[in-house]
Amino acid sequence: MGLSFSLSADTAQEQGLDLEPPVRMEEEMEVMEEREVEERVVEIEHPLPCLSESDTQGIIKGRDLFGYVGIEAVLDQMRRKTMKAGFEFNIMVVGQSGLGKSTLVNTLFKSKVSRKSCTPNYEEKISKTVHLQSVSHVIEEKGVKMKLTVIDTPGFGDQINNENCWEPIVKYVNEQYEKYLKEELHVNRKRRIPDTRIHCCVYFLPATGHWLRPIDVEFMRRLGKIVSIVPVIAKADTLTLEERLEFKQRIRQDLQANGIRVYPQKEYDEDAEDRILNDKIRENIPFAVVGTDKEHQVNGNKVLGRKTKWGIIEVENVAHCEFAHLRDLLIRSHLQDLKDVTHNIHYEAYRVKRLNESNANGLEATFKHTVTANNMS
């Protein structure tokens, strides 16, 4: 005969016995663990505004400082230093004769900076081969000095047979990288290395209204790998607005179909703000531009423009052409970025390639020397 008995909850509590079911105990333990995790998350999400002795970095903002430190004054220091030293900008213009390359460059910088404009009694002759001409000027505006170098490419696309006409240009661009690399590798190098690298190549497309020509595709495909290319439709006032829009769409399709990279590339956007700005620029590429260095009176104001029988085409009026967008890209918003992309992307790729070649040649020479020594022994 078995015995059975039961204890009340009060009795069990008095005797220190735990009659809670195991399931309830597991639930309480899970709740406690969740609370510990939440506490740790809160600590991570809200770090203390001071630096600890560990590797964890804290952010000390203005409200956490005891007073004014003066860190933001470094911007003034950088500005003064840049204004004193000045900076360099090298732009190459490529396209067949008669597309207004020199005129557009003069319009961009509001001065006669092209070789054609600086040479008295200049007569343009069709070059039998592509050769490059460069001219430099120091432009000063509001105390800021810029050494501008314009590289022109007479003879490009002017021949009956234009096969490999891009080779002298590719060679020239790489020679500037090589020159900069040699200066960098000197034991006692200059404090400031002269920069002759091409920061931007403006490629002029004739306003045919059709599609990219084979020479356009091949040039931009090859040059887009070593320099920042900005394509423009030259003398866009020869097209109607509808023709211009259709031509721009066809060009964008051709660029994408042929894998041609033009500036600004999406992979170089640093943040969301850059992406939004650059997306607007990419929507307008290629820029339909008109260039002139002549002023006309329009509603009592002097404007740069081309006079026709139907009126005046205002160069800087976005309703007439996209010159203002090109100017803003090259000078007002992306000039420093063009220099950074040239140094950090294109030049860096060339530098790595050349150093790898040098290392490979050095290993090969060492191997040959070792083999020769072994054979002699």
TrEMBL record:
Q: What InterPro entries has UniProt attached to this entry?
A: G_SEPTIN_dom (IPR030379), P-loop_NTPase (IPR027417), Septin (IPR016491), Small_GTP-bd (IPR005225)
Mind listing the GO molecular function terms for this protein? Answer: GTP binding
Q: Where is the Septin-type G domain?
A: 85-357
Q: Name one GO biological process term.
A: cell division
UniProt keywords (A-Z) are: Cell cycle, Cell division, Cytoplasm, Cytoskeleton, GTP-binding, Nucleotide-binding
Q: Carries keyword Cell division? A: yes
Please indicate if the UniProt record lists Ribosomal protein as a keyword. no
* A GO cellular-component term linked to this record: cytoskeleton
Location in the cell reads: Cytoplasm, Cytoskeleton
Q: Which Gene3D superfamilies match?
A: P-loop containing nucleotide triphosphate hydrolases
What protein family does this chain belong to?
Belongs to the TRAFAC class TrmE-Era-EngA-EngB-Septin-like GTPase superfamily. Septin GTPase family.
The protein's name is Septin
Q: What is the lineage of its organism?
A: Eukaryota, Metazoa, Chordata, Craniata, Vertebrata
What is the gene name? septin12
